[in-house]
């Protein structure tokens, strides 16, 4: 199941969304999260659904892959739906089974809120599917740039994020290696009582910590040797380029916002 | 050989946690354009020497002078522009998320403008023959490839000296071969000064000059030919002798006349051919 | 205890889009008390083979027989501890697996996982630390206060203390200096000779394989390219070179000399002494050209 999961994963392709500046994508996702709360009737939700599907089609990612990948979260969406269905007790009763009644408002709320939830997941997934983690980091660093004035460590945070991203696969390999080494020394990681398995974490975590500290230390030395002395006076190799398409996309979302304001009840 | 580029004058260093000095009154020079190998067993002080040259540690006594600049807290950034360093562990010096990002890292630190940067990144990667891997992520590269990227990262900064601190010791034979070949090309074509710190005697035999370290002191200094005359003495120091030297020595013991110990197999074969084929 | 791989195939992430065939149709026999070397480049599948030797990986096709146990593809296997106790693995850079407060505790960790009593484990720890050439006084120290070379030896002692019947070594000398390399290789060879400990050496080094092993398996692109006694393997070096593999440096040099003198020596030499003897005879004309 984890292999089909698409949340947080990047899929390389050549599409409008892939080519967009990460800043505009981040702004759009942020704006979308705000304007989604404007929707309150069938028309406004309809507009949002159309907008999201239009975006999904721009991404050139196969619909089957998208839907298959969202399946694991579908359970959460359904859970939201039933929660509202059962707990909201307003409006006319539309279904009466005696021990359990469904109210009109409950159905409405259930549909709208789970839909809202679903759209949010889809839009943020589109961001991560079409933008590499490092682009997101760059985009965030640039967008948050003004906060440097109030001494917020924007550059340091971005660097930390990119180094973390760089080392995730390395640490995964390392974890795998230590698990194997300790298994060969008689530790059971996949079977046996829970208590033993919890105890088995110690011989895994300590070597991992130690090697991570050692890596961090060596990395710091290597960075220093290559002239790293903080964000001051540093240039950026990766340049972000804001194109007409980026502006148009944001204008598009602003237009959707106006529509929402007009059609909301 | 040209003028000295690096001068160490009576340098000593001791780690706080240790009882004996890691380096004991070292004086040496590194000349422009040469390939100097510093050899010694693990713990002989050779890596400490490398760290001192780059200002990662400061000597307790003595002075270090690099390209006319005396090393001090104030001059380390100037000196680091002159000296590039490649470390032992290929993973723990790869900062960027892709090959080109990593090569650019040093340039970014030095505030190089974007236009110049992209040229230099590609240029440096070409020199180590990794220019077709621009967007590759580190975990998809072999150890030898990562080390070549690290060398490119150093080259992009156009330093006058490159220090390889046991840069080949964690690699497989193929990776080791790739890295040594890269250094040989650079030294020949870019005239860059190379200091390689190693315990691989095959690697050291390709250098112009060798310094043998033992217990924090310079034990011997000389050309590879001179150093390998030491023979069993090297083995006692925890080192080894290159293969062709071993064979030369054994042949001499078995009554084959050879006027010296040959450093490369090709030289040895050629010598055998010229002196013995007409018998 | 014999170990044998029978037509083993292994696929990583089987049945996913990331599936990758690592080894196929690999058959290897390791009789008890033998010394086998598995050679190949990075990515040749030799580490995958290694992990089958104590059921860290289970074949996706074929079977692995370890002593009286058979691990067959497609069958759920329970209780593999018995196997792991008998086959010890020294992984590459084994010092990375150390975690206890003292060297003694770390060495005792393996044996005690297999149900050995604490007193017995401590006795084994004292034994093992001597075998790897360290003094008993080191047992009380923290493994993290030791030098890299000492940590390596402690980790090896931790595997030896399990008193396995077969020991598998994955590049045990990586990163060591020449003296350290020789000492470690000699240590395992002595154990093999004196205690009849079956040894599997996974390595890049043709020299080590030629020097120590009775039997060599050459892995190439996930399959067994060649197997046999060192002399058989290296009697046809051209084939190895054609596959991008190395030959021991002695043999490589022999080939260079043969080429220069346009001759062929009567035997394949694997040690420096053999080669220099043959060459001396040849050069001084004791052997007709």
Automatic annotation (TrEMBL), chain A:
Transmembrane segments: 26-53, 73-99, 111-132, 242-263
InterPro entries noted in UniProt: ABC/ECF_trnsptr_transmembrane, EcfT
Protein name: Energy-coupling factor transporter transmembrane protein EcfT
Top-level taxon of the source organism: Bacteria
Bilayer topology: Multi-pass membrane protein
Subunit structure: Forms a stable energy-coupling factor (ECF) transporter complex composed of 2 membrane-embedded substrate-binding proteins (S component), 2 ATP-binding proteins (A component) and 2 transmembrane proteins (T component).
Subcellular location: Cell membrane
Record family assignment: Belongs to the energy-coupling factor EcfT family.
Function per UniProt: Transmembrane (T) component of an energy-coupling factor (ECF) ABC-transporter complex. Unlike classic ABC transporters this ECF transporter provides the energy necessary to transport a number of different substrates.
Keyword annotations from UniProtKB, A to Z: Cell membrane, Membrane, Transmembrane, Transmembrane helix, Transport
TrEMBL record, chain B:
UniProt KW Glycoprotein keyword: no
SUPFAM superfamilies listed in its UniProt record: P-loop containing nucleoside triphosphate hydrolases (SSF52540)
Record-linked InterPro entries: AAA+_ATPase, ABC_transporter-like_ATP-bd, ABC_transporter-like_CS, ABC_transpr_CbiO/EcfA_su, ECF_ABC_transporter_ATP-bd, EcfA_1, P-loop_NTPase
Pfam families named in the record: ABC_tran (PF00005)
Subcellular location: Cell membrane
Stated family: Belongs to the ABC transporter superfamily.
Name of the protein in question: Energy-coupling factor ABC transporter ATP-binding protein
TrEMBL record, chain C:
Quaternary state and interactors: Forms a stable energy-coupling factor (ECF) transporter complex composed of 2 membrane-embedded substrate-binding proteins (S component), 2 ATP-binding proteins (A component) and 2 transmembrane proteins (T component).
EC number: 7.-.-.-
PROSITE patterns noted in UniProt: ABC_TRANSPORTER_1, ABC_TRANSPORTER_2
Domain of life, per lineage: Bacteria
ABC transporter domain ranges (all copies): 3-246
Record's protein name: Energy-coupling factor transporter ATP-binding protein EcfA2
Species of origin: Mesobacillus maritimus
GO molecular function terms noted in the UniProt entry: ATP binding
CDD domains noted in UniProt: ABC_cobalt_CbiO_domain1
Family as reported in the entry's similarity comment: Belongs to the ABC transporter superfamily. Energy-coupling factor EcfA family.
Primary location class: membrane
Topological category with respect to the lipid bilayer: Peripheral membrane protein
Methyltransferase in keyword set: no
Enzymatic class: translocase
Pfam families: ABC_tran
